[in-house]
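Q: C-alpha cells for this one, please.
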Amino acid sequence: MRKRIVAGNWKMNKTYSEAQDLMNQLAAYKKENTTNCEVYIAPPALYITAAKNIFANNEVGVFAQDMSEHTSGAYTGEIAADMLASVNATGAIIGHSERRQYHGETDSHCNRKVKLALDNGLVPIYCNGETLEQRKAGQHFEVIKNQTEVALFTLTAEEIKKVVIAYEPVWAIGTGETATPDQAQEIHAHIRSLIASKYGQEVADEISILYGGSVKPDNAKEIFSKPDVDGGLIGGAALKLEDFATIIKAFD
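A: Here is the predicted structure, written as C-alpha cells:
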C-alpha cells in the first residue's frame, strides 16, 4: 500500500529562531496527535541538522529543497547527496518548478539527481508539471510524459518504487487560474498510467504521487479524496502550524 504524505516546502523563509519555533511546535503537535499520513518538511538547508535534532525520533522526515547533480568538486554553493546523507537527511526535493524556472534545471539534471539521491539512501521527491502556455496549448499530457520518461525511466523497478512524485500545475500557481481536484486527479492518473506502461501496474500502485498546486486548509480534504492523489507538497500553508496541521488532518 502506497504512503500518504503531507510534505511542507518552506522555500526561502524563516530565520533560524523562527524555524526552531515552528519545528518545536510541529514536534509537539506530532507528539500529541496521531496522524494518518507521513509528515515531511523541507526547511532551508542551514536548518537540516537542527531539524534532525528536534525530530530525533524520526516522527517527521527532513528533506533538502534541492541537491547537486555532482558528487563533489568545485561547485560553489552546491550540496552533494552524500553530504545530506551524512547529516541523516531523509531525502531531497528535485526538479521543483522554481528550480526549473530560475535556475534552468532540466529533466536530464533531475535524472542525475534522482539517481544520486537513491545511491545515497535518500528519498527523492521528483517534481513535474506544465506551464500556463503548455496547458492552454493542450500540451499538458505530452509535457508530463516527457518529464516523467526523461527523469525517471532509466531507473529499475526497485529504484522507482522509492521515488515520490509531486505534480505541480505551474499554470495554477500565482497566475489567477485555478486547478480543480478533478484536474489534479486527471494528471495524477496519467502519471500512474505512464509508470504502469513501463514497469507494470503493481509497481505504479506503490508510488506516492503528491499534488503541489496550492493546497490549503479549505481544499485539502477534497483534493486528497481523489483516488490517485496521495497527499500534497505544501508551500505557504506549511509556514503556519495551524494551517499545516489542518492539511495533515485532511487524511483523518
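A few notes: The radius of gyration is 17 Å. The CA atoms of residues 25 and 174 lie 28 Å apart.
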